Amino acid sequence: MLETCTIIGFYKRWNHSKTRNHRGKKYLHAYFYDQNGVFGIKRVSKAQALLLKHRIKKIKWYYCEHCGSKFMSDKYKADPQCPKCGK
Ligand SMILES: [Zn+2]
């Protein structure tokens, strides 16, 4: 499922709930937007994270002046195009 998503970052979270000595287990979570632009967080394994790291994108949200729709695009792209009307 994550293969088709836009990965935007990771964060580490410690799970202290089941331990007594404050040495909880470390979990990696990935932030992503799916194909519909819906934001999500998913727990990933270390191996998965290594692969996904290469696919992190610096994205930015844009508003299309022509059709008013919201879309995300590469942050460093000079002239982002609206996927709906192509302008
Ligand atoms: Zn548009």
Which helices and strands appear, and what pairs or packs with what?
Elements: E1 6-15, E2 25-33, E3 39-44, H1 46-53, E4 59-63, E5 70-74
Antiparallel strand pairs: 1-2, 2-3, 4-5
This protein binds zinc ion.
Residues 64, 66-67, 69, 82, 84-85, 87 line the site of zinc ion (ZN).
What does this structure look like?
It contains one helix and five strands; from the N terminus they run E-E-E-H-E-E. It has one helix spanning 46-53; strands at 6-15, 25-33, 39-44, 59-63, 70-74. The protein has a three-stranded antiparallel beta sheet with strand order 1-2-3, covered by helices on one side. Strands 4-5 form a two-stranded antiparallel sheet. It is elongated. The structure holds zinc ion. Zinc ion is lined by residues 64, 66-67, 69, 82, 84-85, 87.
Distance linking N and C termini = 29 Å
**Helix vs. strand class:** mainly beta
- Tell me the strand order in the biggest sheet: 1-2-3
Compressed to H and E, one letter per element, the order equals EEEHEE
Helix content: under 10%
The ligands found in this model are:
zinc ion
Roughly what fraction of the amino acids lie in strands? 35-45%
Query: Which ranges are low-confidence, i.e. pLDDT below 50, for 5 or more consecutive residues?
Result: none
Tell me, what's the shape? elongated
Major sheet: 3 strands, antiparallel
The number of distinct β-strands equals 5
